[in-house]
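help with this.
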Amino acid sequence: MPRVRRSVWQLSNPSPELEWYARAVAEMRRRPFQDPTSWAFQGAVHGYSQNRAPWPSLVSPPRPNFPDWERCQHQTWFFLPWHRGYLAAFEAIVASIVEALGGPGEWALPYWNYSDGSANARRMPRAFIGRRRPDGSNNPLWSPRRPNFDNDFNYQIPAGIVDTGPALSTPQVHERTHGGSARVRRAGDRIRTLWRSIRLCQR
């Protein structure tokens, strides 16, 4: 059966998709940061600061030599394809964990389109708000870095922050050579390396 990604705002409440996502994230959080399928490692692929929690408690200076870390691409035409590959790799990891935990083999990562202009678009989906779940257990989808949403369920991301117009109209997005082709090739190589790591972990 094909995987079908659905808008998080079109899911039931509670939803099986987000319930399995929460279970998989909890499992990823339990894995050591050196594991390419761990929550910490996946976050560090995008970027990390050794001075920001939870890294000081996980990693002692100097910075570990993980070449796949801090590869997020911005201000370049590679922004969209890099993040597409990154999310596809992340989804593959989560889906394999969902299935290993007894979940559906066709599980797909829900998406949150906060730029679509609808009433809920810029509000945080409820499953990601609050330290505790309805049954009193810890919420693995909660993050302390989103205090505005915890303090006000109706809080919305300011429209200017999610306006894609300025970003997509910048010359850097259209100029394929911006930032140097070598840097772009290295970032692409890291995505391919990440995919190889995922396949090895799934064997």
